[in-house]
Write a structure and sequence with these properties.
The chain is an all-alpha fold and 441 residues long. It is built from 21 helices and no strands. The two termini are 41 Å apart.
């Protein structure tokens, strides 16, 4: 009931009182903690912890991602990449270009980092192809979300697999079997129903410019720099899988493969190779200072997005620390249903309660782990079932919800119709795929 009232309060503050989402989320976080009976001092610590943990993990990735996107747009690199993709797939099939790029990026990259890397390409492809922005955004977000929830070596999926003692290679193989049809349903079929949804992205976030062909950078250079964070993260993942823990290369690879460091290196590389400087003299390019100025404008436009996600992190942390999620999960823990469905259901409830897919997955794994240990379910399939449940029904307590809403300038109603619906489709399709594999195997 407290969770229901908290969500109702948040929606009322935003929709009816017209209060900014950042302030509304902050007010709701304090209301939830007090209604739950948290001590004032503990509630304040929880809010501060939620803001700190969210910004600590996101601020550099988001800031550098916005700067990289701005540089790609200002120098024409985004136009070069989107133009080549559209020539390969055709303007009418632009969503396939976005989806396949999102899947490749998503396998190696964290969701938030992948989102900020690919968002400029979505804006550019929409402008060049004339296709509606929102369906393309869903085609980009769906594979990022699926790979985040289903496939190792992503931290959430890997941690859940470790709890169950699942084989990571087998989990990855079965995960691909579930992920591919799920991505096609959520990223190709579902966007067809979203063509009439309008969006108003923040002014100055991504400015689509037109360039003379002679002033554009090369495709190979543009693509490598745009995907440089992916390459660093993929290399880090490979070293973790194939090198021993004490190997010195693995330590450095983990450092350079951290999303914040990888994004920083990508920005520095973009400034070096896409600007007029002493190493690469080209009078048609902007100077480094001019690129900094342009990216600063884009970063200013993203400030409110960052604040809203910080407040969303505070709300999520209060839900976690107050114990609401655990109480909900405990109420259905003894139900006589399929272990796979039970794991999915508990993860779904936790996702609804606390917002974080990683927290939902890990908590659900701890609850149903005895079922796996007792031989009641395949550890690999249970990993996938919990991963699918952890993506279900994303709403106002999930930072991903606000990132999608603010980045693409959607109303609350349209964010539910697009982002929340997409995440729910992924969760249901994922469970269906897991149950089908369980029946076949």
């Amino acid at each position: 009931m407290i969770l229901f009232l908290s969500i109702a309060l948040l929606l009322a503050l935003i929709i009816f009182a017209k209060i900014n989402a950042f302030l509304a989320l902050t007010i709701t976080a304090f209301f939830t903690g007090l209604a739950r009976g948290m001590a004032p001092v503990e509630l304040l610590k929880s809010v501060q912890s939620g803001i700190g943990s969210t910004l600590g993990s996101l601020i550099l990735v988001l800031a550098m991602g916005v700067m990289l996107g701005s540089i790609l747009a200002e120098t024409g690199a985004a136009q070069v990449i989107s133009g080549r993709l559209l020539r390969i797939f055709g303007a009418s099939q632009a969503k396939w270009a976005v989806l396949l790029t999102g899947f490749v990026v998503g396998v190696a990259m964290f969701y938030n980092a992948g989102f900020v890397v690919l968002a400029p390409l979505v804006f550019s492809i929409a402008a060049v192809s004339g296709q509606p922005l929102v369906p393309l955004a869903i085609s980009m977000a769906a594979p990022l979300s699926v790979t985040h929830g289903f496939l190792p070596p992503h931290p959430g999926a890997t941690a859940v697999a470790t709890v169950f003692g699942a084989d990571l290679g087998k989990t990855l193989l079965l995960g691909f079997a579930v992920a591919v049809p799920t991505v096609l349903i959520a990223g190709i079929v579902f966007p067809k129903f979203l063509i009439n949804i309008s969006s108003k992205p923040p002014e100055g976030l991504f400015l689509i410019k037109r360039f003379e062909p002679s002033s554009l950078p090369g495709f190979a250079k543009s693509l490598v720099i745009a995907l440089l964070p992916v390459l660093f993260m993929a290399f880090s993942t490979a070293t973790e899988l194939y090198l021993p823990a004490e190997h010195p290369v693995r330590s450095w690879a983990k450092f350079f493969g951290d999303p914040s460091v990888a994004m920083l290196l990508a920005v520095l590389s973009a400034l070096l190779f896409f600007s007029q400087n002493t190493l690469f003299k080209n009078k048609k390019l902007l100077t480094i200072n001019e690129l900094f100025e342009k990216s600063g404008i884009a970063l200013g436009a993203a400030t409110m997005i960052i604040l809203i996600m910080a407040a969303g992190g505070a709300f999520k942390q209060v839900l976690v620390d107050s114990g609401i999620g655990k109480d909900l999960a405990a109420q259905i823990g003894g139900e006589a249903v399929s272990p796979l469905v039970l794991g999915w259901g508990i993860a779904t409830l936790l996702r609804i309660a606390v917002g974080s897919a990683t927290v939902a997955g890990m908590t659900a794994a701890g609850i149903v782990q005895p079922l796996v240990a007792g031989g009641g379910a395949s550890p690999e399939l249970m990993t996938l079932a919990v991963g699918a449940g952890s993506l279900m029904c994303s709403h106002v307590n999930d930072t991903g919800f606000w990132m999608f809403k603010e980045w693409f300038g959607l109303t609350l109603r349209d964010t539910f119709r697009t982002w929340t619906a997409m995440e729910t489709i992924i969760g249901v399709a994922g469970l269906a795929g897991v149950l089908l594999l369980d029946w076949i195997l």
